Amino acid sequence: xxxxxxxxxxxxxxxxxxxxxxxxxxxxxxxxxxxxxxxxxxxxxxxxxxxxxxxxxxxxxxxxxxxxxxxxxxxxxxxxxxxxxxxxxxxxxxxxxxxxxxxxxxxxxxxxxxxxxxxxxxxxxxxxxxxxxxxxxxxxxxxxxxxxxxxxxxxxxxxxxxxxxxxxxxxxxxxxxxxxxxxxxxxxxxxxxxxxxxxxxxxxxxxxxxxxxxxxxxxxxxxxxxxxxxxxxxxxxxxxxxxxxxxxxxxxxxxxxxxxxxxxxxxxxxxxxxxxxxxxxxxxxxxxxxxxxxxxxxxxxxxxxxxxxxxxxxxxxxxxxxxxxxxxxxxxxxxxxxxxxxxxxxxxxxxxxxxxxxxxxxxxxxxxxxxxxxxxxxxxxxxxxxxxxxxxxxxxxxxxxxxxxxxxxxxxxxxxxxxxxxxxxxxxxxxxxxxxxxxxxxxxxxxxxxxxxxxxxxxxxxxxxxxxxxxxxxxxxxxxxxxxxxxxxxxxxxxxxxxxxxxxxxxxxxxxxxxxxxxxxxxxxxxxxxxxxxxxxxxxxxxxxxxxxxxxxxxxxxxxxxxxxxxxxxxxxxxxxxxxxxxxxxxxxxxxxxxxxxxx
Length: 600
Description:
By secondary structure, the chain is of the alpha/beta class.
């Protein structure tokens, strides 16, 4: 993954000053300020209240009051994922802290740098089942890079500085700092910078030269290579270096769900997204390759299908900053531990040395891949029920907004369509919950992205199911002048679950109808709901209304916009690899699978 996901300065880089007597709560605020944090999402409560008092007077920290702690957590991840900066969220003890757990797990799965600060009951009450007590350190230890418990105010500056360092270096991720109320209230002598000691924490960034040379040799010898690009390339800010390697080796590139935008969709070497709902060329390129160069990717089950049958004839070069990921699922012939940005530079140089500048001979491979691109282009059929095609709606959002926009998706069919039908030309433009698959991610993540990137258009592309989980953050957006655009792809159901019920459960739609869309009671009415939150509400039911609604949303920047796109419930996400089978059996459409080769 990466070592440089945020410009937050290290404690040593901040000028020191004379010690001053302050409370632990004041030290929390002062430490965040000294570390260059500018935006914080949070919700106060009793156990964190001491911190909110000095926060009230801070001129350097913008605190955004969210309506639910999960919203604050996802806003912090959206902030980080769209900008590369650290996202910060604050919550109180007990239910406030546990409401953050889903967002923390999400950041952990997707390697997003996030700092969660929580209040804890008095240290003298811990372990007594005190009011609003929860062992949040124990709860979150498996889903953070580290979780700290602070009982001594003198430990607060060093702990927060250490937490920021851990969250933003190596493979980025969430770090939790839990601070007892008595530690917040007590006074101590504050001095900056603090002494930070993290014995054993030494992320490797520079790869071993012999391994890089071995990888370059394999690429030079390969007849059917593929660059398998994961989200680590985006976290490492290594898109330019990836482009150089790709154009030097002439190898095809596939970008995972987390890596959309790491390599331009418009580039002729880009085959699209691999995986369960990837493009046919991307899926079969991996499956029939003789060499996979995995860059910041982790061989997720949604990419590999049945792992034992994945790319049976391929050797593997695996580059990752997290040594735990290498050979975890697929044994690497050449393992390379290091920062993707540095490794890509070294790998390109080594390839040029190995080949002596000779052009690779990949004409036969590209003829096969171009044939797949021609025969199996990404597309969709118009719904038979006369309702809107969701793919068309999402495609027009991308076309009218352009590549400089930021697109945050919820989870489900609309997520896959947004990954497929919007063209991504730059990193950090696509935000989604890839590993955890968290419904409710889109609206708060878009809110965080708009705070981090106020000059960009930010869309939340959501489903009617996902939208009902976190739409209360529209209030936060309206009151804090965060004018996001929300496209509700309203098929009146839990769409992806319904698709599986159609395909694998004989159309038995058990508990997936939501009654929000066409020909239903419309509870809730999303237009009325939007207006109640002070947003502009629009409903679109006809194809000829789509562009006008999107353009109105793009022109409206004084408040959030919610567009209720009433789409067909029968639309499905294609292509698709059924779970538990080889990727060779990818279905281009229902009952339509391309021919494939089992030969070497």
